[in-house]
Structures
1.
Amino acid sequence: MHQPIVEFIRRQLHSLLSVIELEKDGRVVHVDGFRLRKPEDGLQAAGDRFHSGQSGRVSCGASSFQSVKNASLYEPRIELIKKQLESLLRVVQLESRGQAIEVDGFRLRNLKDWLSPSPCDPTEIFGYAGTRCNCDCVFCCNKGNPATLALGNFRRPASEEFAEMMSRLDYFLPKPGYCLFPTLGDIYEVMIHPHFFEVLEATREKSAKAFRITTNGECLTPEFISRLKKLKPVYVHLSLNSASPSRRARLMKGRHPKTAIESLPLLTEAGIPYALVIVPWPMDSVQEMLDDLADTVAYADRNLAHLVQVNLAGYSKYFSHEKLYDLDEVWSRVVSAVRDLRETTASPIVVMPSMYEENAYETRKNASKVVGLVRNSPAARSGLTRGDEILKLGSVVISSRPQARGLLSVLQGNEAGQASLTVERGGERVEVILNMEDFSYPYSPETDHHLGVIFMGTGLRLSYLESLRGVINSHNARHVLFLSSTLVKPIFEQLLAESHLFGDVRLDIGVPRNSFFGGNIFMGDLLVVQDFIDFIREYVKGGGYRPDLVVIPSTPFSLGGWGRDLTGRVYLDIEREVGIPVELLPCSTIFD
Amino acid sequence: MADYVFRYELDGGSELVYSDPLLEMIRAQLESILDVVIPVEGQREVRIDGFKLLRDRSTVHRIFPHEKESSERFE
């Protein structure tokens, strides 16, 4: 009577044991049989035994357990294995040489089974060094992460982290484009890891790609920079936040604010381009914050910063239950200050998220307007100026910012020599000639993307509308609810108004609240499954009817490529809970 | 150097939906598989919300405990 069940279990266990080994108390156990967990059945006959493949081996000194929640985000087949094992172990007792055994864990048998397609950016190796921090920034976004997030870190010895990084490097295959699935948590300060340079040097032997390293700068002594120089191409994202040692010390609580501040001319001398990152935080008053912003930008400019990046700060309800500042007041004043600073600063300055500035100041969005130019870049030396709008590249008419960015990237990659650009400047058309070989520091073909042109963010591709139409057609939907975000909605509405693709469809645009993170967070990419479920339920209740289809941009679910949100929950749960078909629209993040 | 060992702990699993352990085993397996795949028939994606045992084709067992029955979904 139980034979089909027994055979089902046997096959399940056999297939599982081809990819994992079972363990108890950190040691691998050899499993060669099982019994159903019913006292009256007794042991199974020999014919019910399964073969576990190669004989088990016993090992001591096991590494730490990995987080299954983290795995659910990046490689949910591991969570699948765990759940399958747990469901099987409720009904069977495993055996080894006729004796009942218990298991409490499993390990991956062959890492080569777990390779995933990857762009093989070197950060995928040394990012794992960022498990600790030597600062305690008052605005640190990691302080605002709830325990249910799938991105948490767990404590391990540095030597074990190093062993993992070196194993990852063994399976880092840039040529076919594969590496091990990620297990990255929150990334802190990579430079303080005791094995940081060993990992970097080993990674350099396998990849010629630029090392893009984010740091608070506390480690950037002359000796440290000298070692970094030997590993070029390197690009540093330096979270300086203030050029004033006393203010920086209060903002970041590091022990070496002057090391970070004095690193700028050293990086320039070493030929290492860097972005200077500032998080304006109204610690004392908004005006003091803005005055310091101006001083810090001026300092960066004097030291030939490749880029100044001003990150508009928000915080979750886990960071603070109280309102710390008026977000609109702070953000709008920062953006206004940045726009003034651009008039007097040669280093390009961007605000993140850039769509906030675009929505506030640009009547026509998604345009290919030049916000800044990297010093000494082909674009800067060609005579392009800030404010130019690119109309044509060679003979190709430009109709959107993503198109301009894409074509400039292609040009840079082709090393085509020269190209002509037609721009609109002060109401007139001007032609400039780009010479791809005319450049010097801080521009570098290895670390720049668009020949030195800085835009106001990535923009929205017009092809997204065509993809949306295709999704709608595949469902024969007539009433569609498209879930957007506060920042993206104005640009999306503009593109819709300019499009003729949706005349026969009712397309409602909704903006779910970031209830999971709360605080003053309002970013689409930080929405989770429950936020979408709550909004759809409210929408249906409010209108008294339901749409034929809900479409959601894929970006809140794109971190691991498996459709999981930041808590590790699969987007399919939205449809399961609300009973309305849900499709993801593949698209890229708005962050550059 | 030997490969770093990726280890994962077993912790007993999530809440039981069915009291019949063999039925629950199948339900849990389907539920977890459906979080990583979308079944297809030919080229057509198929949404699965239940299953029947081959020995009892008259009884439908739900896979997702919180999912609405099609008759419960609002019009």
2.
Amino acid sequence: MFKIFEPNKIFSITSKAPKYVLMLFIIVISIGLVEALILSPEDYIQSEAVRIMYVHVPSAWISLGIFSSVTFLSVIGYIFKIKNFFLISKSLAPSGFVFNIIALVTGSIWGKPTWGTWWAWDARITSMLILALFYLIYLLAWRIYDNKDYVYKITSIITILGVINVPIVKYSVDWWNTLHQPASINIFSQSSIHISMLFPLIIMTAAFALFSILIFLMKYNTELIKIKNKGLDRL
Amino acid sequence: MIREILLMDGYGFYVWAAFLFTFLCFVTLYVVTKIQYTKEMNKFILKFGNLNSERAAFAKSQSINKEILSNISNI
């Protein structure tokens, strides 16, 4: 059933895909930047500072999405003993971590003109910082441990513990009084954001998603070649 | 027009700083990942070149090795 996920089968696709993903990313990010920096309107309260949303929000969404995917793949990989799922998780994590850092830093930059402070121990900011720590521990675990079975086990545990934080990040604005406003975009109900701001936000999210796919493909190919290098040593 | 885009009603510093930081993170991540990829690929080429003809033929029989070798021109 899982033969389709064998590295030999997917390398022929993953090795050719990066250049096309890169081209698509450049096109989408160019449209997104024009929309976000020039065409989208200013906010009636936050004025032009609202434009930071176009890098802050997609980064936060993608970082949460990647961590959830990493957890899902690690758990399924551990249960069904699919080593390739660990390889995919390991290749996804660096871009998730970088997006987490971007969300924290751009949030801090946005906080200064909006709230008057660079940092506050607000529930959402703190939970995002905790998520960054889980990413860091996950990435360090891959670097520290050489024993494959042990690293599969330890990274699965890290992701299971870390994923508990994901709904906390999402619902922190509803559960506690925070500086952050409640969610403006809802999939199942009416969004409070105007279409003129929603459109650039979607474009920028698509561009960021393409960038994370690009990094994932490059990392994944690197990991596969690393394995093959070890194979050549044994010949 | 350009002045308006740069100054952004006095919020230009914050908006441009956020976009610039994001751009720098993207470039750094891309460059680091590309360097790692190129390094592993070069290692593979070197190791493959050091194999004797019998071992090289065996290694070449594996489809993934063939794919890696066919991608050498892309690095």
